[in-house]
Design goal:
This protein has nine helices and 16 strands. By secondary structure, it is of the alpha/beta class. It has a seven-stranded mixed β-sheet, with helices on both faces. Strands 13-14-16 form a three-stranded antiparallel β-sheet, with helices on one face. Strands 1-15 form a two-stranded parallel sheet. The protein binds 4'-deoxy-4'-aminopyridoxal-5'-phosphate. 4'-deoxy-4'-aminopyridoxal-5'-phosphate (PMP) binds next to helix 3.
């Protein structure tokens, strides 16, 4: 593969060793003589993959033996926007609105019951995280988005409520240590820090289920998926396997604590550069900056073309900002190396001499 510095916001870069093992498994999965694409999701080989992935997904977050169950389901994080209220909403849920993805989750929850927006950063174009949230009103659950992929903001602490906590961690799960066990339902589309697109991970404390009187269709029912050991229907075999390879890689790196140290270095290097150069501005409030998605823009439009050109020359790809925010966004998921960030920093510094 060409040596491209890929800062894609998702689907994300994965480690080279994961690409190699996944490729090999397409040709011959663990010397079975069969491709991973053509084995049954009920074969003993795939059940072993699924079970290891389910258990490692909990282990890496310190959630084993704490009442959580791991599910690998299809439908992306967007499906969970709907599945969550289906399973947990009785009358009223609380949502923190920190951007497009929270807003989409809110929209779906409103189909099932009343939504109380307990905090919001909409007033300043979602460029910050509302602070000191301690919600006292009775709620069936409270939902927040730990990392806002589009704006580059991230929660540093866990908001509080007198209700089960639900968190969309699509773009920062496995990137840092966090009080994961204070959250009752964690979900993530896999395609940021877990694996390829096409599967989502849901980590759920089983005790929070079973309180709604609603009839839940099987595909929407977490309990049904739990009862069927995450195999209610055909699993995305290849995506789950690739997730497992990536989770194994993370364990080999020393787990979440070790990768967090690297992630901190990468983010610090890029933010320092942004702060030092007077022609670049960060988009997010400094204290709420995401270590996964770094958003920035130039003070003058005409610099965009120069930057784009320098990026192409340096083999830097996928740094365009989300269409709703504009500017640029470099996503620093686990597999992005410090060396790639150094190349990007170098390009930003080169801009001094050409503008
Ligand atoms: N939540 C967050 C925080 C996201 O970044 C995304 C995708 N970018 C989603 C939800 C939606 O995920 P999916 O495309 O898997 O439905």
């Amino acid at each position: 593969m060409k040596n491209i510095h890929n800062f894609c916001a998702g689907p994300c870069l994965l480690p080279q060793s994961v690409y190699e093992q996944a490729s090999q498994a397409i040709l011959d999965f663990e010397q079975t003589g069969m491709s991973i694409l053509s084995i049954s999701h009920r074969s003993k080989e795939f059940i072993a993959v699924l079970e290891e992935a389910r258990s490692l997904s909990l282990e890496l977050l310190g959630l084993q033996h704490k009442g959580y169950v791991a599910l690998f389901l299809q439908g992306g994080a967007s499906m969970e926007f709907l599945r969550i209220p289906y399973n947990l909403m009785q009358q009223k849920a609380g949502y923190i609105n920190t951007g497009t993805w929270s807003a989409k989750a809110i929209e779906q929850a409103q189909l099932m019951g009343e939504v109380s927006i307990v905090a919001s950063s909409e007033d300043r174009a979602y460029t910050y995280i509302p602070k000191e949230i301690h919600v006292k009103e009775p709620l069936d659950y409270m939902h927040f988005t730990s990392n806002n992929t589009i704006y580059g903001t991230q929660f540093n602490s866990i908001p509080k409520a007198n209700a089960p906590l639900v968190c969309d961690m699509s773009s920062d799960i496995y990137s840092r240590e966090f009080a994961y066990d204070q959250i009752d339902l964690i979900y993530a589309g896999a395609q940021k820090n877990i694996g390829p697109a096409g599967v989502s991970l849901i980590l759920i404390k089983e005790e929070i289920l079973g309180n709604t009187q609603r009839v839940i269709p099987h595909m929407m029912d977490y309990q049904e998926h739990i009862n069927k050991d995450s195999l209610y229907h055909t699993a995305n075999v290849f995506a789950v396997y690739t997730c497992l390879l990536n989770l194994r890689w993370l364990k080999q790196q020393g787990g979440v604590a070790a990768i967090e140290r690297v992630n901190n270095q990468k983010a610090a290097l890029l933010y320092q550069t942004i702060d030092q150069l007077d022609f670049v501005q960060g988009v997010a409030a400094v204290e709420d900056r995401s270590k996964m998605n770094v958003t920035f823009r130039f003070t003058e439009e005409r610099m965009n073309g120069v930057f784009d050109q320098l990026c192409t020359e340096a083999h830097i790809a996928n740094v365009q900002g989300h269409r709703s925010v504009g500017g640029y966004r470099a996503s620093l998921y686990n597999a992005v190396t410090l060396d790639s960030v150094a190349v990007l920093v170098n390009v930003l510094e080169q801009m001094k001499t050409v503008i």
